[in-house]
Amino acid sequence: MPVGLFRVCLLVITAIVNHPLFFPKENGTIPENTEEIIQKMKEREESLRLEQLRLEREIADQEATQKALEKAAVVVEESKEEKVRWDMWTALSMVIFLLIELWRQDFQEGNWQDIGGEEDDMAVLGKAFKGVAFPDKAVLASFYEKRILGTTGDMARMREMVEGFADDLLEALRSVCNRDADMEVEDCMGVGSMYENWRVRKPFVCDLIVPFAPPEPYCFCCQTWCSGDSFPPDEQGYGTIKVCRADEDVTGCICDKTKLGEDMLCLLHSQVSSTRASSEMEDLLCFKNTQYLDADQVMKWFQIAVTKAWNRISHKYEFDLSFSLLDSPGALKIKFKSGKSIAFNLTPVVQYENSDVYFISHFPRSSLAADIPSSTHWFLTFAVYERRFIQLVSKTLPANACHVSCLQILSFLHGKQCSLTGPSGLTNYHLKTVLLHLLQARPSQDWAPEKLEARLQDMLKFLEKCLHEKKLYHFFIGNGKVPAELGFPIIFQRAEPLNLFRPFVLRRDIYRKMVDTFHEMLRNMSALINEYTVHIPLAHTNGIRKE
């Protein structure tokens, strides 16, 4: 008990001693300036509040940024899914397109010649013929007899005269040439409309081709676009001619194909031999520093050789011979003292292997070779086989068949229209190609003379179809139905069909001109025919009929 009281008293004494009021000077902790302290506390509070607002804004900005990133990630993910879906549809569409294209080519390869044989196909054509008055059989027969039939005798006499003179000229050409160094010229051959008996427009011009070959020991190695070598699409129908020695490997030394460098030398070919070979190639009418035959060099050589040959034999004839066209070295004109003249073309060609297909240096009076890739590219002509095919088919047709008459009438109308509105991309060769297709497609009895009107309509309708589709295929190239009797090279039968209208696909101005010329020819057809026909009552003319 006394201890507890003692502890209480000690506690009271300690509390009294430590009370601040007893020692105000020594232990005073109360600030003297209370307002200053309050002011600082307010400033501190304000700064803390501003800091809090700043932190809140930063947090809000971070949250907004995070939301934007999340949204962008969602958009990217959706675009990836969309792209995957689009790529899938694109790939599927490409596969479908390729399948359709393969099917079309297969169908085309097997059936591209079967044109004109189906009446339903011809029935849907002829839109350009609406409202066009088409002459009937009586008018066409009168026109053919009066305007065309009488020219056959003139053509025969002209062919005989030109062929005799050409043989004499080529014989003189051989005599003026160096047999050891110059090209060897063979006998000429007649091709084209004058020798297929369908040319109608004057002046008559005979087309003669002259095969030539290099002197021994050289030979020509021909390469075509369908022989396995890589030719771009715009060079289809062309080929190159390489001049090689008979004992030389056609593939040549590897030094011709690779750059050995300045410090390396081929052990087989020295620089001297290379220079000598280059000079020999130029003498053999090759393009500079190559072994490929140059068409321009051939044209110059042929023109000079013909000039020398004529100087040798000119004293035998009572007429003058001159070159009629500057861009066609073989375009010759015989001028008689009476003022009359005869024109003919003598064109150098190179035989393809052992066939009657020829590489031709240029096409007289034609724009077919206007866009030749280079002077080392030669166009192939199948004119000899075309003539043989017409002769072969003619033997199976009825007497006085109308196939040649159709081509003559159509060629006459086209020529007359071009004289009125100017030339177009459509040529007589296109017209002949149409006839060749129809000759193969239609049975023999359809070409009886009384069916002239119907067959002429077929040719016009088929030509309209080709113009609309911008497709007219070469008759021989890619045609697996060529008669075996012709002996046509199989390599061209197996080739891809060659579209003769392909150059007009990108040249829309020429294509438009060609279509306009065709339509104008249809509208003027009756007037052009009636101009050369004796008067026949109008009741004989009628609108075009669909067969």
TrEMBL record:
User: Which Gene Ontology terms cover its molecular function?
Assistant: protein kinase inhibitor activity
Q: What broad class describes the main subcellular location of this protein?
A: membrane
Q: Where is it located?
A: Cell membrane; Nucleus outer membrane
At the top level of its lineage, which domain of life is listed? Eukaryota
Would you tell me the Gene Ontology cellular component terms?
A: nuclear outer membrane; plasma membrane
Residue spans making up a coiled coil are 38-72
User: Coiled coil among the record's keywords?
Assistant: yes
- Domain Mab-21-like HhH/H2TH-like spans what residues? 404-477
As for membrane topology, the entry says: Single-pass type I membrane protein
Q: What are the TM regions of this chain, as residue ranges?
A: none
Q: Does the keyword Cell membrane apply?
A: yes
Q: Which UniProt keywords apply?
A: Cell membrane, Coiled coil, Glycoprotein, Membrane, Nucleus, Signal, Transmembrane, Transmembrane helix
Q: Where is the signal peptide?
A: 1-20
Function, please?
Enhances Ca(2+)-mediated inhibition of inositol 1,4,5-triphosphate receptor (ITPR) Ca(2+) release.
| Family affiliation | Belongs to the ITPRIP family.
Q: What is this protein called?
A: Inositol 1,4,5-trisphosphate receptor-interacting protein
Q: Which organism is it from?
A: Pomatostomus ruficeps
